[in-house]
């Protein structure tokens, strides 16, 4: 399995692991109000980190595709 496929599979695994608890939490009927606890927490740093990692992975993929394309052009010349 290539490195790119491993990265993509890993990204999907992380997305599934992160979204599964949110889906299960939405099914509950006895909801507990945790707003006093969660209002004091800021997730902006975490969101920035996740988006930064996603941008880095997208950049690496674009770099990989570009290098592959250039190598194909050089080999065919």
Write a brief caption for the model:
79% of the residues lie in helices and 0% in strands.
Rg, nearest Å: 20 Å
Q: What multimeric state do the chains show? A: single chain
Kindly report the average pLDDT value. Answer: 83
Straight-line distance between termini: 29 Å
Overall shape: elongated
H-E string: HHH
How many domains, as an integer?
Answer: 1
Number of helices: 3
How is the biggest beta sheet arranged? Answer: none
Signal peptide: 1-25
Keywords: Membrane, Signal, Transmembrane, Transmembrane helix
Transmembrane segments: 41-67
Protein name: Phage coat protein
What does the model show?
The protein is mostly helical and 77 residues long. It has one domain (3-25, 45-76). The protein is built from three helices and no strands. It has helices spanning 3-26, 35-38, 44-76. The protein is elongated and about 65 Å long. The two termini are 29 Å apart. 0% of the residues are buried. The model has no long low-confidence stretch (mean pLDDT 83). Keywords: Membrane, Signal, Transmembrane, Transmembrane helix. The chain crosses the membrane at residues 41-67. This is Phage coat protein.
């Amino acid at each position: 399995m290539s490195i790119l496929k491993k990265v993509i599979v890993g990204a999907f695994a992380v997305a599934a692991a992160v979204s599964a608890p949110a889906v299960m939490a939405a099914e509950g009927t006895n909801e507990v109000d945790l707003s006093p606890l969660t209002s004091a927490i800021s997730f902006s740093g975490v969101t920035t980190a996740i988006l930064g990692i996603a941008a880095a992975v997208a950049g690496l993929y674009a770099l990989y595709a570009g290098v592959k394309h250039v190598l194909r052009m050089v080999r065919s010349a």
